Amino acid sequence: MPSVIGLLEQREARAREELESWREVLSQTQEEVAAATERAERARVAREKLVQALAEEGAGCVFVAALTGEADPFSERLSAGERHEFESWRGV
Question: Could you say which of 34, 48, 61, 85 has the lowest number of CB atoms within 10 Å?
């Protein structure tokens, strides 16, 4: 019959193995979070550069407003004035 001390030593060894396994999972997850954070930051910087480039050209002011969330391109405020009616180019 195994001793109580022997059983507790086996239990501790299994617990340490499980702990090490979870630490590996945690480490991998932290690496993935860091990579995702870096991708998000690069995307934010790229968007800001695009918005700035469009704003500097002046022609893209409506696009800049839509990209930054300052305006809805389909709102009445932006599309006020004459409404465009679709005309078929096929002459149908």
Answer: 85
d(CA 82, CA 84): 6
Using a pLDDT cut of 70, give the percent of the chain over it: 60
What pLDDT is attached to residue 59? 54
Residue 45, amino acid: V
**Predicted TM-score (pTM) of this structure:** 0.52
Within 10 angstroms of residue 82's Cβ, the number of other Cβ atoms is 6
Q: What angle do CA 20, 18, 3 make, to 5 degrees?
A: 120
Structural domain boundaries, residue 40: 4-78
Task: Classify residue 92: in a domain, yes or no.
Answer: no
